[in-house]
Amino acid sequence: SAAAYNLFFNNGTDNQNSNVDLSTTVFGDPLLSPTYIPQDGSIAIDAGTALYQVGSEIILDIPSSEFNGAAPDIGAFER
Hints:
two-stranded antiparallel ribbon; mainly beta
């Protein structure tokens, strides 16, 4: 398994014995509103990916019409 395009903040342990892609993982306060929407200056904004594939298998393919900015935001809500 692989863990990529994650945001870790205020965890006891971020991961344990995991295959984490540190080049796509961010660490810090996501600056979420009380309703969990990223606020201005959030490191979650545009930190996701629209295309993710492992070898030749496409795991995720989000059309650009479904997100704002350069890339999808990390988290439940797109800003």
